[in-house]
Every structure is written in C-alpha cells, then in structure tokens.
Amino acid sequence: MTSCSVIRKYVSTTSGNYVIDPDGEGPLAPFTVYCDMNDKSGVGVTVISHDSESRTHVKGYESPGSYSRDIHYTGASLSQLASLTRVSSHCEQFISYECRYSQFFRGSFGWWVSRDSIKMNYWGGASPGSGKCACGMTSSCPYPAHPCNCDREDGVLREDSGLLTDKTHLPVKQLRFGDTGDAHEEGYHTLGKLKCYGIQ
Asked: Domain Fibrinogen C-terminal: where (predicted)?
C-alpha cells in the first residue's frame, strides 16, 4: 500500500503503525509510518515524526542563518518521504518561530530549507515565493510594511507560525536562524510532524 489513505480505503480503519511503499515497484524500500485514521475527517493521514519537534531555544547566533538545525525523520529518508508526497494529494507541516528583539525575514536572518536543499523565502501560512509570513499575506503584521511579526524586533515575545502546504517542497530538511547574538535577543523554533493524506 502506498499511503495511509490507501490503507484506510481498502484495508483498515484502525489507527496505528503500518508499512507503506509509496513508490510501489520502484527502488525505494518500504517503511513504517503511523496512520491516523480519524484526522482530516477520517481520510487516513500518514504521520511522520522527527527529532526536532520540541520547542527549541535559539541564542548566541548573530549572522544570518548561522544557527542551523538539520531535521532527521523517523524511519524514512528524504527520498522515501518525497515519494510519499507524490502519491498524496495533500501534505502539510506546521512551522513556528518565536522571537524577542530578533529580526526574521527583514534582513534575511531566518529561513527553512526544502527537501531538495533549496533556501525557502516564505513561512508557514504564506504563499510560496512570497517572502512573507502569514501576517504579511494579510498586512496584519505590527508594521504592515514588514513581512513578519518578528520583524517588529522589540521586547515582546512574538510568533510567526502556520502550515507549509506546498508538497513539492516538503518535508523541511533544515532550519536556519540568526540575529540572536546580543544579550537581549533570542528565538524559539518548533516544527511539527509531516502529515500527508488523500490519494493522488
């Protein structure tokens, strides 16, 4: 079976661990995933965990992108996960950056890296290629001319977060941040599990 949505449709409606093989007769090995059969109105969601899901402090990295966090997914390679995205109609991954006195997109201090090692200039909740966070899409950032909440760069702990949904870029391979080198500057990142569903 290529995904949890296929398993949900033809095999089982019970949530749990299952072995899937998204590329079928292709060269990639099958791998074990968790199938959530109740989420997304019971369509059968393939859930992939990783080693960077907890809220993580970023401090002491001043230059743009000087903080680097590689994401390692549980039980599957990026090639295997890419094959999962291709057989799924939808994929998503929650991403968040909280900041205090730390610039984000203004000055290009932070970004994420796609599975194909491409530097991504948009954040969760924003359109691919927009150079914005979610608030920038609706001109609701503290400074409407700025692309993200964190670009307010003040003493308030602010957050930019949302879902990444362009499955051709997922999963997230790496997180990069900066502007946390001074004593009063800091950030926190959180990255959710990869979730794919629907039959392509």
From this structure: 1-50
Residue 3 is given by DSSP the state S
In single-letter form, the type of residue at position 199 comes to I
pLDDT digits (tens, 9 = 90+) for 79-131: 999 999 999 999 999 999 999 999 888 889 999 999 999 999 999 999 999 99
Residue 76 near residue 194 (C-beta atoms within 8 A): no
Contacts of 126 (CB under 8 A, 6+ apart): 132, 133, 134, 136, 137, 162
Q: Which two tokens stand for residue 61?
A: 């990295």
List the structure tokens of 57.
Answer: 């402090």
Predicted TM-score (pTM) of this structure: 0.95
Q: Which ranges constitute the DSSP H helices of the chain?
A: 4-10, 39-42, 78-87, 134-137
Buried/exposed 65-104: b ≥16 CB within 10 Å, e otherwise: bbbebebebeebebebbbbbbebbebbbbbbbbbbbbbbb
In degrees, to the nearest 5, what angle opens at C-alpha 156 toward C-alphas 152 and 161? Answer: 70
CA distance readout (Å), 159 to 4, 93, 124, 150: 32, 16, 11, 6
